[in-house]
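Hello Y.,

Per our agreement to keep a running log of every chain we model this quarter, I'm adding this entry. I've kept the format consistent with earlier entries: sequence first, then predicted structure.
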Amino acid sequence: MVKLTSLVKTSGCAAKLPPLQLHEVLDSIPHTPCPELVGGYEKSDDALVYRLEDGTLVIQSVDFFPPMVDDPYIFGQVAAANALSDIYAMGSEPKIAMNLICFPSCLDLEIMRQIMLGGGSKVAEAGAVVGGGHTISDPTPKYGLCVTGFGKEGSLWRNEGARVGDLLVLTKSVGVGIINTAVKAGVASDEAARAAIGSMITLNKYARDEACAFTVHAATDVTGFSLLGHLYEMASSSEVTMVVESARVPIFPEARQYSLDGMNPGGLYHNKEYLQDKVAFDRNLEEVVINILHDPQTSGGLLFSMPPEDARTYCRKTGFTVIGSVQEKGELALMVR
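Predicted structure for the entry above:
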């Protein structure tokens, strides 16, 4: 069977358009006022929110990308878990999904079938249903979902609302993009590859479900714009400064060495370029740690801003990690120590 990763130049969320280029375009597009659209891209929320006449909120997002693994079933699982995550990051639950598939006409259709089966397995695990989709003939395979959830006013999380004194909680380790690059180069260990896949196919459903019992002031998921990129979006939207304790950030063990060996995806450098004037780093911080904090994640974890006692109790219950805190707004949105 053909290696899917041999057909792509960039993979997973590392294939995103560089944030500088994306913002250049988005900032030039006129905003169309709509009273029913209560959440759009203006503040970098993870999904749009549209209010129906009866007050029901429709939460919708879309995500797709090229493969980062060769197994088509696992690729489908990763892509689906990644797309479903946006709904969990809003505090909601996915209900309906539609497949988005770009597929080379020269490949065996069994590969596409396996991708869809893998994706369908994660949609089913989420308690949602696939209701249709769309396909395009494309030399570069890509797969993902358009996902819809529902909610009521006051029930959703947003990436704004973090409060001074909150603690920051991260639910998955970072370094996936570096490990995926090492896998593609043929230098990653089986153990590192398995760990990365295990993380990427894990739904954020379980972290979200546990968090619903606590107060969450702001939330997002960590994907292609890196841990620091998504922290920046949350801090700037909330008009606060967030302080990251780098020693507390969970990192995949082998990501450090792979980064030192040069296995850094292109998206990492795009993220560093975008954030270069937005983050203050401790002068003693190692460059390899800075690289990992800019690493584009595929199907990364949830990131919460929570009151201190809630954050500590949530972490004791789940094993997740407090990685920083929220302070009054300073000169820059982020500080890393």
